[in-house]
Amino acid sequence: MGGQAKGKKKGKPKRKDINPNLDPRFVGVSPQERMKLRAHEKAKKKSAEKYSVLQLLEKTEECMDSFDFEMARLFCQRALDVESSNLQALDMQGHICSELGDTEKAKEISLMQLSPDVGHSKYMYLGQINTGQESVDFYTKGIQVLLSALEKQAQTTQAEAAAAAPADEDAELPTAKDVCVAYCSVAEVYLTDLCMEEGAGDKCKELIERALQYHHDNPEALQLMASYLFSTERNQEGKEYLLKSVGLWLPAQEESAASSNTDEDMQNEIPPYESRVTTAKLLLESEEFEVAVDVLEGLLEEDDEVVQVWYLSGWVCYLQLEKAKELQEREGREVTEEETEEWKALQEVARSYLTNAKKLYIKLRCDDQPMSEHVEQLLGDLGGELEGEEEDPFLDEDYEPCSEEEEDVAEAPMEH
Fold first, then answer.
1. CA atoms within 13 A on the CB side of 171
2. Disordered: where is this region (predicted)?
């Protein structure tokens, strides 16, 4: 403890001044600190008597699921007070600290020497909160732990697994999909932070190929391969991987949106929101406008408070309009009445989406100047904002900004 006399004493301790009945932990501690320690011990004892570690971790998980990370930290700490070496509790505490922005504490927890070769998730957290080579090192260690755990699982017979189940029912059981996701995480670093490093492209491709070996139809791995191929100007190959990826989860998104289905298995088929925003960008880049519209409509149905999704929705309509006009000019014919109506509809829809993007941008106080300028440019080309339109419910004066995670998506820089 920071207040102990060890750092203050210049000579040897005077044992005759120490109360023989005093707890050694309280030696040299101020009365105020001593009171805090005793209160902590009392709370720890009360928790141990009233709740089991399992119950405390269940409460921790409930709070995490509802994004109440402050309360989750309290329950998790109580669990560690009772059983300080509980690996699940340590992993959960590392995740909670990273969610609360306490990266130093997350590092401290995850780098504890306690069972460094057990539990891969702490290394995944550290990989997420770091950048560059340091991120790669943490992810690589996590992959080593994962592969070791998978090997041990493969060597365990069903009978042995059944016999051990009661003791290990809360243990972290890795899957091939976990390995796939971990390899993708390293590949993304080489596609972004370390893209200028010598041989970064080859390393990125190799890592994605390894990911697909463990989970050949993983949508995010396929999409990452598409991103890599686009970055190397192999656009046709990239488009094939991208469409294969989207085809694996888009039907589930459409079914979920149509029926408000919250079935867990169906939801697990759908990549995270941020990943699907990236999907929409890649679809625009590859001129797969109709599929992009389907993806963006699903995103708006799921969450209509993300500026970038409104912006992309307006942009794809604008691009569809431009493509239709180019086709007509290339064919050297007169514009048909049907085309005129279709173009007018596309123009109005694009203006509507972009007008909402601009309003929400202001409400959320976003800070993405390139996106804001592009919205203004597109609106200028389309005839300006829509005036006198009934305001959307989420754009009223009582609107409260979305969560930090959603703001990160809204403020992610755009390429155009």
1. 14
2. 1-42, 381-416
pTM (predicted TM-score): 0.67
Concatenated DSSP letters of 333-396: -PPPHHHHHHHHHHHHHHHHHHHHHHHHHHHHT---HHHHHHHHHHHHHHTSPPPSPPPPGGGS
The span from the CA of 347 to the CA of 329, in Å, is 18
State pLDDT tens for residues 337-389: 999 999 999 999 999 999 999 999 999 999 999 999 999 999 999 998 887 55
DSSP structural state of residue 272: P
In the chain, what is the straight-line distance between the N-terminal and C-terminal CA atoms, in Å?
Answer: 54
Are 129 and 185 a contacting pair, CB within 8 Å? Answer: no
Structure tokens at 219: 């949508």
What residues contact 72, with CB distance under 8 A and at least 6 apart?
A: 60, 61, 63, 64, 92, 96
Query: Is residue 300 within a helix (H) or strand (E), and if so which, with residue range?
Result: helix 289-302
Phi (first) and psi of residue 267, to 5 degrees: -65, -35
Q: How many CB atoms lie within 10 A of CB 240?
A: 16
Q: 297, exposed or middle or buried, with CB in 10 Å at 0-12, 13-18, 19+? A: middle
pLDDT in tens, 376-414: 999 999 998 887 554 454 444 443 444 444 444 444 444
CB atoms within 10 A of CB 180: 22
54-62: long-range pairs with CB below 8 Å, 24+: 54/170, 56/82, 56/89, 57/86, 57/88, 57/89, 57/92, 57/170, 60/89, 60/92, 60/96, 61/92
- Report the distance separating Cα 271 and Cα 267, nearest Å: 8
* Mean per-residue pLDDT, 180-195: 96
CA 9 from chain center: how many Å?
48
* Backbone phi and psi for residue 358, each to the nearest 5 degrees, phi listed first: -65, -45
Q: Give Cα 341 distance to the centre of its chain.
A: 42
Q: Which two tokens stand for residue 198?
A: 């010598």
